Amino acid sequence: MARVKGIAVLSCLRFVRERHGEEGLERLRAAITPEHRSMLDARVLPHAWTPFELIVDLNVQADALFGVGDLQLCVEMGRYAASASLPTVFKVFFRLGSPRFLFDTASKLWSAQFDSGRLTVSSDSDTSARLRIEDFEAPHRSHCLAVKGWALEAITLSGARPVRAEETHCRTWGHPYCEFSAAWADD
After folding, report:
1. Which distant-in-sequence residues (6+ apart) come within 8 Å of 59 by Cβ?
2. Maximum CA pair distance of the chain?
3. Is 183 strand, coil or helix?
């Protein structure tokens, strides 16, 4: 089964704690499966591999508890994850380039965060990109929406203004890959 680095799990927990306090975090812990709760109890380390199912369970349950049950809260959680990690992990890249440069770099580092699939980036212009997730073992809507949020925030953190970000393909819709189309303005 696919795995993700613990930093994604910790980001989700921080998101809930910051917006809903310790009580919200306890509600989330109570809502996830006992197996996943025991993984949290054993302590998740930022750079350790964790089952992808854990982050899916956390995202789905957080959306059910604090969103409206349509998984759109996952977009916000993806934005939060980008704002929490990109300024530190990719600090040098913000000074060097555009959102496209950041996306290209992220595609090269995909395997540092996920042990399944790959992220490819293509573009028709200097102010747009298509991000494609291919061959990911366990696609889930919550993950796709979190990647969309991450891309939106990456554009913003790069100093550009998001103009459009839409999901054009998704394996959960029956497509052979997941793809996002994003455009920005260099203000």
Report:
1. 12, 71, 73, 74, 77, 142, 143, 146
2. 48
3. strand
Tens digits of pLDDT across the chain (187 residues)? 899 999 999 999 999 999 999 999 999 999 999 999 999 999 999 999 999 999 999 999 999 999 999 999 999 999 999 888 665 555 555 555 678 888 888 888 899 999 999 999 998 798 999 999 999 998 999 999 999 999 998 888 888 899 988 999 999 999 999 999 999 998 7
Sorted by sequence, the CB contacts under 8 Å of residue 127 that are 6+ apart come out as: 160, 163, 183, 184, 185, 186
Q: Which residue has tokens 């409206």?
A: 68
User: Rounded to whole angstroms, how far apart are CA atoms 70 and 63?
Assistant: 7
What single letter denotes the amino acid at residue 130?
R
Residue ranges of domains in the chain: 3-66, 91-185
Let me know: does 47 contact 7? Beta carbons within 8 Å: yes
CATH 3.40.190.10 fits 91-185, yes or no: no
Residues shown for the chain: 187
